[in-house]
Fold this protein.
Amino acid sequence: MNNRNDHKANLLLVDDEDGFRTTIAKRLGKRGFVPMQAVSGESCLDVMARNPVDVVVLDVKMPGMSGMDTLKAIKQSYQKVQVILLTGNVAVSDGIQGIKFGAFDYLTKPVEIDHLVNKINQAFEMTRLEEEKQKELVYRARLEKKMVDTERLVSLGTLSTGIAHEINNPLAIINESAGFMQQVINSPEMSGFAQKEALLMGIGKIEKSVKRARRITHQLLGHVKKQDTQFSEVHLAALLSETLGLLKKELEDKQITIDWKIDKAKNKLWSDPYQIRQVLMNLLNNAVHAVKKNGAITLTTCETDDAVTLEIKDNGIGIAKENLGRIFDPFFTTKTFDEGTGLGLFVVHKILSGLNGQIKVESTLGEGSAFMIKLPKNGR
Amino acid sequence: MMIKIPAKVLIVDDEKDFVEMFSLRLEKQGEKVSTAHSGREALEVLEHEPIDVVILDIRMPGMDGIDTLRQIKKRYPIVEVILLTGHGSTETAVEGMKLGAFDYLMKPADFEEIKIKLENARKRKDEQEERIRQAEVRLLIRRSGDI
Ligand SMILES: Nc1ncnc2c1ncn2[C@@H]1O[C@H](COP(=O)(O)OP(=O)(O)O)[C@@H](O)[C@H]1O
């Protein structure tokens, strides 16, 4: 009788007087309720620990654990459960006290059955409303978080591209200076110089570090939006082939299978091919990096009237749950500095929001990841 | 060993330190280098010195790289221009190539890459000059034939 949909199953009747309790239960039964029953506060909590309960009809005056204490215990452990108190005729103050402790309402004994049924229905309605409210709250919180994330990422994007650009000029000066020194040291006049190797080593390290910094700035800037984004017809399958072509060496090295589940004649959209290629490049690059030798990457599309969804799925290392919320952050990476910059997905996210697209990710550690991108067909 | 014929290179960038180090490096490499720190200065240099290849920063205060490129291509169509960009405006670079630039490089650039592009730009200019010379020769022959 644990059917969640049949709310009438989740009613619990608590009273120590067997006669009263069974009579009420029988009458409720005639009206379509089949309540569970408990003879004391303790057994009430016991039943609740083992069964889903939405509404409790609770006698206040019971030996052992009192009704009021039972109410408190229920409200502490099961906030969503509604409790209707049954009080003695002379103890109306108990009912009021109960409402203060979170009871839904109270009825005085002797109980009018229609009255009770009414109250129970109201209480059920209340649990339903509460549940909906809860769902909406969760949904709204999630939406807000997503919006905050997006906003944060966008402003971070503007800032970081600005900085990257300012850094490239001094980097170029360092680069040319080191390169020039290297030329001088390597010239014939310096051939007798004792510390030559040491100097060259130092310069080599400068150049290596410049390259490392450059990888970061160039990747950050690689996606900067054109002033006038060039929209044209984009053939998703063709772009995918092209991008895979650029990754040919990596694919061959790891002997990766590409599983095409795409109708190559379809999936055309009106968008910016330059930026979409960048998105595909970054996602495929990650997938290639994630899989082991002989791994597989599956490409699937799904087309509706106004959008195309592409899924890039790999059977690689997967992403740890605690990292899922951070992979789109700039500089978040689990790779070493010569393998990754942590900017790939950040850039992907930035491009997609600019193109009115969306991205979703599903991943299980050790099994693989799937990135789904959705793009509007007409560019908006 | 082949004797290297120096390319006559003009570096244009408002970053003085960059111009200084980059020209030292190219000179050491055997090129003949002139420098300018603005578009206007660049046009002045071009007026007085024979130049094969201009290496031009896209972003400069005043007359920017793209304007300078337009002027250069208008006045000296045969001079090759390689664009340098310090920021992500590869689109601007592409626009520049449509205006006749030979190629572009992103700062900080790999010296090997610079060398190759410089070499190719110079080659293209030489070939172009050669074609013009031959055309002139043909024209001359035809004219003398007319007489
Ligand atoms: N397909 C994938 N499989 C497993 N992990 C991934 C995948 N794509 C992204 N990640 C995780 O997200 C992180 C951030 O990715 P990204 O922003 O592209 O930067 P980078 O690849 O340079 O580290 C990666 O370091 C990796 O931990």
Summary: Residues A 282, 286-287, 290, 314, 316-319, 327, 332-335, 340-346, 369 surround adenosine-5'-diphosphate (CB under 6 Å). Helices of chain B lie at 16-28, 39-48, 65-75, 90-98, 111-146. The longest helix of chain B spans residues 111-146. Chain B has a mean pLDDT of 88.
